[in-house]
């Protein structure tokens, strides 16, 4: 079958493209911007790419089916031509569910935070356990050059289960298509203000996910998330295991010193290379999910002791002038706060005496809308110094939102100006934590270059 994908360079759709190619289909695709690293990965997989939305692609490619990504809206010239001609089309999640996930034990990882890291953890555990699982991760793991793999059709398939809407023609959350047998519900907060009116609307979508699960399925839910309590109170027909419970309670517990127990029975110790309580809880949920497909907690904990992490999650981009530059995807005030806490924890453990300098780009749709601007100052308070880059799409005043931080915070509307200011203040031993769910104007490379120049001056 020949498949042509609209929006192919997005993380999810790029993963779908790689899975389709691995399954033996001819795959082509287009996007508004075709650029590395996704374009390189797709071309290496033998996928032909075209930049732009020209309707001429209909005659040039003549695919059997068009897969439409959720970034493609009505008014897109290629989509309009497909609709006008009555050509067959389908959303990415629907195609994936029917062609790849059908008949497999799907392990879905959902939640506002930690999806990519937890999905990567589960996949890595199953790989090291010899299962050859399939996976689709919303990021590139440090242990592989690929974000998606078909795996053995008889092995589980691990998928990052996003609550964002499916496509222009299907406004349900993507994850309702996956019909998991094992589901991790990591946490739940208000996000995606561009499509969800309030938290209750997201809770309803999470319950739609729970409703698709079989009675012998397993829901692994965070015990300290009130929103998830409300989701499960709507009805659950599968087995339920809670994680982050108090010691001795039913479910999975984790002490501050890493002791793991299930319903009061010790199963081992967690020694995760990644710092931070949030990462440790991601690991705890991954251990629970792996147990559901036959991997012992003891084996999972041993594997996680060597877990390499995920790119763009506390990823060290380089060192210069005695400073460390770190990249993280943090896109929500809670993620910002927990990332800062995790990096601070890592600094303490490694004996780093310098400052933690936080650089933030409010870039997600929710952040650009200013929906959570009142929580920003509090989420950044634990940093020693804060720099905020407000791009042209930010229509609220970060200066006002960060005013509670006083002189500790600086706002600029130019990335090069931000780089110059940070480089001028940086001292050996400082950790520069860059947080954005986008490219942040190439700030990482620019910072390292400026710091190297400062070292030579």
UniProtKB/TrEMBL annotation:
GO molecular function: ATP binding; UDP-N-acetylmuramate-L-alanyl-gamma-D-glutamyl-meso-2,6-diaminoheptanedioate ligase activity
InterPro entries cross-referenced by the UniProt entry: Mpl, Mur-like_cat_sf, Mur_ligase_C, Mur_ligase_C_dom_sf, Mur_ligase_cen, Mur_ligase_N, MurCDEF_pg_biosynth
EC top class, as a word: ligase
Record bears the keyword Cell wall biogenesis/degradation: yes
Pathway participation: Cell wall biogenesis; peptidoglycan recycling
Domain Mur ligase N-terminal catalytic stretches: 2-98
Mur ligase C-terminal domain sequence ranges: 312-438
Record field: catalytic activity: UDP-N-acetyl-alpha-D-muramate + L-alanyl-gamma-D-glutamyl-meso-2,6-diaminopimelate + ATP = UDP-N-acetyl-alpha-D-muramoyl-L-alanyl-gamma-D-glutamyl-meso-2,6-diaminopimelate + ADP + phosphate + H(+)
Keyword tRNA processing listed: no
Co-factor(s): Mg(2+)
Alphabetically ordered keywords of this record: ATP-binding, Cell cycle, Cell division, Cell shape, Cell wall biogenesis/degradation, Ligase, Magnesium, Nucleotide-binding, Peptidoglycan synthesis
GO biological process entries: cell division; cell wall organization; peptidoglycan biosynthetic process; peptidoglycan turnover; regulation of cell shape
Coiled-coil boundaries: none
Residues annotated as binding ATP: 111-117
EC number, as in UniProt: 6.3.2.45
Span of domain Mur ligase central: 109-290
Protein family: Belongs to the MurCDEF family. Mpl subfamily.
Known role: Reutilizes the intact tripeptide L-alanyl-gamma-D-glutamyl-meso-diaminopimelate by linking it to UDP-N-acetylmuramate.
Protein name: UDP-N-acetylmuramate--L-alanyl-gamma-D-glutamyl-meso-2,6-diaminoheptandioate ligase
Gene behind the chain: mpl
